[in-house]
Amino acid sequence: MFERFTEKAIKVIMLAQEESRRLGHNSLGTEFLLLGLIGEGTSLAHKALASLGVQLQEARTEVEIVVGRGEGVVAVEIPFTPRAKASLELALAAAQQLGHNYIGTEHLLLGLLRQGEGKACQVLSSLGVNLVELEERLFAAISGQTSDSVVVNSLHRDIIARFHQQLDAWVKPRSLGKVRSYTRFRPATGDMLMIDVSFATKNPNENPALSTRQVPELVAQVYSPSMRRRVFEAKLQLLLALGAQVGLLIDPQDRTVTMYRPNADVVVFEDEQTLTIPEVLPDWNLPISQLWPSEG
Predict the structure, then answer these.
(1) Percent above pLDDT 70 for the chain
(2) What share of the chain is helix, strand, coil (3-state, %, to 5)?
(3) Residue 268 is part of a domain; what is its CATH number?
(4) Which H or E element spans position 104?
(5) Torsion of CA 133, 134, 139, 141, to 10 degrees
(6) For residue range 89-108, what is the model confidence (pLDDT) as tens digits?
């Protein structure tokens, strides 16, 4: 993974190690990755954090309150904590989702935010940062690199939100299971996968945290022209092979939804048609036209 890191992302890791040593800790948690992002000083992630008033010294003080000081004897190599490892894997997944062949500071920050349970998010919340607003500002910074990507990323997020809302409005009142956006899933072998929208039936033995092992029954991806269509199709086919019952590829360019199922023909729903998924959600339906933002 680290061979894909930009110079600034590598600098963040080095700064995080220094912050961990400064407090005498023998493991590198998400809170130290956050300090590295703040301390780097010039990157997209730093600018997004700074725009919300996050400053290094205040963050250092809050980190020390949260984790305290360690024993003071620090090994030469400092291992990542499990949650820090998960955030790095989510950074990779975020880069793949955005069609980037590198991992930059912006992906590292997205990984921290989407991991969601680490001390980094706790520190940010203690500093008064709205995590949703931070992610929006980060996407705005990413989008600002190219004029075309502003429209693409905004549309991508809008459609994810619309599909999630429509699906959840049916699932939640009936207690059928859980609808999630930006779900992480790790196959037994291979990199962490990020799924735009997923639905999984309730499992009494499931950990309330986002599951990295249970394959959702329904998985949906929103197509972005920044990545070849076959990449999205391959991800859906992999998830179907691992146990998903239905995969959906939502294409805002063609205004279509393509349905993939194991051992079944591919079905394309066009703009004037209604999406139904009887295998997973009997009686639920969604007019395809309701997925798209209104024009003008």
Answers:
(1) 84
(2) 50, 20, 35
(3) 3.90.1570.10
(4) none
(5) 120
(6) 888 888 887 778 888 888 99
Q: Phi-psi region for residue 69, left (φ > 0), alpha (ψ -120 to 50) or beta? A: beta
Residue numbers of the domain that contains 36: 2-143
Give the 3-state secondary structure of residue 180: strand
**Sign of the C-alpha dihedral computed for residues 204, 238, 113 and 292 taken in this order:** negative
Which whole-number Å values give the CA distances from 93 to 50, 196, 294, in the listed order?
A: 24, 11, 30
For the chain, give the number of residues: 296
Q: Are residues 192 and 213 in the same domain?
A: yes
The verdict on 106 and 160 lying in the same domain is no
Q: How far is CA 169 from the centre of its chain?
A: 22
Query: 49: how many CB neighbours lie within 10 A of its CB?
Result: 26
The CATH number that applies at residue 95 is 1.10.1780.10
Query: pTM of whole model > 0.85?
Result: no
- Name the one residue in this structure whose structure tokens are 């680490």: 118
Asked if residue 296 belongs to a domain, the reply is: no
Instruction: Please say whether the beta carbons of 191 and 264 come within 8 A.
Output: no
Which residue has better confidence, 80 or 256?
A: 256
Which distant-in-sequence residues (6+ apart) come within 8 Å of 107 by Cβ?
9, 91, 92, 94, 95, 98, 100
